[in-house]
Amino acid sequence: MMTEIVHLDLKDRKILYELDTDARQTYLQIAKSVGLSKDVVIYRINRLIEKGVIRRFYAVLDPSKLGYFTVRVYLKFQNISSEKEKEMINYISQLNNVRNLARIEGDWNFVFMLWVKTHEDFDKTWLAFEKKFRPHIQRKEIAIITEEYRFRRHHFYEGKQLKHLVDVTGLSKPEKLDKIDLQLLELLYRSARCSLIELANKIKLTSKAVSYRIKQLEQKKIIVRYRAALNLDALGYHHYKVNVNLEKLEELTALNTFIKSNQYIVKSLRSIGGSDFEFNVECPGFNEFLNILTKMKEQFGESIRDYSYHLALDLHKTQHFPGDINIKN
User: Fold this and answer.
1) How many other C-beta atoms lie within 10 A of the C-beta of residue 210?
2) Phi, psi (deg, nearest 5) at residue 175
3) Does the domain spanning 177-219 belong to CATH 1.10.10.10?
4) What is the pTM of this model?
């Protein structure tokens, strides 16, 4: 069943941009930014939720500050039935620290990412997985994600020049956190617009104490940003991943400048074991995506050794909070 496309006007797109910048903004703050009344903003946000454009609001966390790093696995299948593929998806979904998993189209068939604390943790998980599904895996690529750069979704303003803001997560030392901090992180991950009063009632602290702790988590960059999780299908957008290998790594700086200039590029990655350069694209149609590739080849053609891309088809799970953190009292 195809998802019905929801057509947004400029005010809706401005609201989504504001929520992408800081999903914990008050309705009044958003209203002032987009030029609407508070009541109209509340109505429009609720309508976007009802139509399935906004799935939820969540806190973006830096896993390295929680003592974790991310391992990504690409898989190419062989001799696999639809039943066995479903079995594999269910198996991965039930792993404790799955960050996300998706079926993709391109050089690979499937991708999943895990939060892990040690290489031994991943090795144990991977060996158990391979013992069960190795006959159906033609090839694999395993990479350690070292840094992630997330960009604001400027395409909601249709090319208008806006201040370019970047969130960076990755190579940081773990911070010391108590159980209340961890409770707050989980609550804000699951519902970023939860009020101070609601948070205080759940954690059994005063609103002032909760506010102070949140500010500390933000200042330490444990909480990087608050965002809205969007249904790209409902917006008529597609999600592509591009992997680039270079002849000379000196071009990395220029490539970073290139991706920041494109409104549809929403994230880039550095990894150990993957390609030299990776970036994610959200755009309305394949032709727009091809335009990005064409511009990249025109600017860096002689410097590119090879590149590949894939299209995300089905996102089976996404979870940006580690499942094995003990937050119980």
Assistant:
1) 22
2) -95, 155
3) yes
4) 0.88
